[in-house]
Amino acid sequence: MSQLAIRIAATAFLVTVAVVPATPQQAVRKPPEHGPPVPFFNAMTPEEVGRYSDGGTEVEHHRDPADELVEHRRLDRALASLAPQRKGVVDAYVVTVALDSDGEFSREAREAGRVLTRRYDALGRTITLAGPDGKGGLDLPRGSPAHLGLVLARIAELMDKREDVLILYTTSHGARIGVVYNDGDNGFGIVSPTRLAALLDGLGITRRLVMVSACYSGSFLPAIANGDSAVLTASVGDRTSFGCQADSDWTFFGDALINHALRKAQPIEAAAGEAARLVSEWEAKGNLTPSLPQSFIGDRAKLWLAALDKRTPKAPTMPVGVPAVSLLEKR
């Protein structure tokens, strides 16, 4: 994680009814391998990188048109599957996105989609953007800034912005200027705090719970937070987070928040506190510099969160996958 962050900085579910299982030939589609350093960012000053990132710049190259048509159809099916909002009900629209093609991020985003769909009664209103997970999971649209923007725009069309809410979970590597988009050697970019805030505000999505699992993710809190918002991040703005290893299914923050705390019928404040404690315990076990996960919950956000929490299933579910903390045993 740190090498990628330095390189950049230096310059459900998916609503399963809408996704057909992979064909036998595609059953174990492998994540693309990362290749050369990110193009053109290295030649920029930090100010230039920030300006282009805030503007939503992303680079796509070496894309095969036939593959892109297949990708377009995946996304089109996912968008078409989203159900409209229900009048008089606080509906949650859940989006989980893995912006890096390493398999552990895809696996985290997929399970986060399932957990958040169940918790927030969002069946039929969930999209997961995550490329191949390396283990034969469903063939989902890849996570990219462009796809995220399209999904948010469609949700903005369907939701009642005075009543409904967005639940957004994103996982990737991070840099001081934002969350990194890196799809093998084919796609590169940054989703900066300013860019994400501009997307949400421009679409009128003010009622939102945004969770960011990435290094330096605390930088998103001041950009996204308002009285109608809740924001949870894996770290403060000037520290790394941990757990992104190819043989794991979770980052530390994702494991603590999604795989443990949000599986229980407890308020988001309690879940954020539990996640922070777990992360702190795991980091202490590994003698790691504390990442200090952050949380903010606006006064008006507490009202719609309470409405959603009333529909949370009372029975907890069990954690799944390879625990993030198990990585410490291999050091």
Chain oligomer state: single chain
Number of strands: 10
The N- to C-terminal Cα distance equals 16 Å
Total helical segments:
10
* Radius of gyration, whole Å: 18 Å
Low-confidence stretches: 1-26
How much strand content do the residues show?
Answer: 5-15%
Sheet with the most strands?
Answer: 6 strands, mixed
- Lateral strand order in the biggest sheet: 3-2-4-8-9-10
Class of secondary structure makeup: alpha/beta
On the 0 to 100 scale, the average pLDDT is 89
- Dominant shape: globular
Proportion of residues in helical segments: 25-40%
Succession of helices and strands: HHEHEHEHEEEEHEHEHHEH
Topology, element by element:
Elements: H1 2-9, H2 46-54, E1 58-60, H3 65-81, E2 92-98, H4 103-119, E3 126-129, H5 145-158, E4 165-171, E5 174-175, E6 178-183, E7 187-191, H6 193-202, E8 208-213, H7 220-224, E9 229-233, H8 252-260, H9 268-285, E10 294-297, H10 299-309
Parallel strand pairs: 2-3, 2-4, 4-8, 8-9
Antiparallel strand pairs: 1-7, 5-6, 6-7, 9-10
Helix pairs in contact: 4-8, 8-9
Give your account of this protein's structure.
The structure is a single chain. With 331 residues, the protein is α/β, with parallel strands linked by helices. It is 36% helix and 15% strand. It has helices at 2-9, 46-54, 65-81, 103-119, 145-158, 193-202, 220-224, 252-260, 268-285, 299-309, and strands spanning 58-60, 92-98, 126-129, 165-171, 174-175, 178-183, 187-191, 208-213, 229-233, 294-297. Strands 3-2-4-8-9-10 form a six-stranded mixed sheet, with helices on both faces. Strands 1-7-6-5 form a four-stranded antiparallel sheet. A hairpin with a 2-residue loop joins strand 5 (174-175) and strand 6. Helix 4 (103-119) packs parallel to helix 8 (252-260) and helix 8 (252-260) packs across helix 9 (268-285). The longest helix is centred in the last third of the chain and has 18 residues, at 268-285. It is globular, with a radius of gyration of 18 Å. Residues 1-26 have low confidence and may be disordered.
